[in-house]
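Quick question, first post here. What does this chain look like in 3D?
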Amino acid sequence: MKRSAFPPILSTVGFALETIASRSVTVVNPQGFHARPAHLFVKLAGSFSCRVEIVKGNEVINGKSILDLLTLGAGNGTTLVLRASGMDCEAAVEALAQLIEQGFGEMPTAEGQK
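> Answer (accepted):
Ran it through. Tokens below.
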């Protein structure tokens, strides 16, 4: 039996490249990621089929895990990178970024400020 001098060809037919979206955001609500915002984030992230991650410095956590979020230590002013991969990743990153940028509904309104 004669061996070929060429390596085998691996077929990529039927495989699609995974879509990835990311965006940098800053935590603006006064208390940062405490229990209520973490719950809101996980609930919204869970409504998407894609994988969601949050990057803080060298730390990468599962954005669909409330325990991971609570132990992240992301206070007011913390810069995070939202990263998602999968079919609906762009919509997920956009929605989650808006949630964070709007302060999880905890920001004082213009009427309440004097």
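The chain is about 25% helix and 20% strand.
The radius of gyration is 20 Å.
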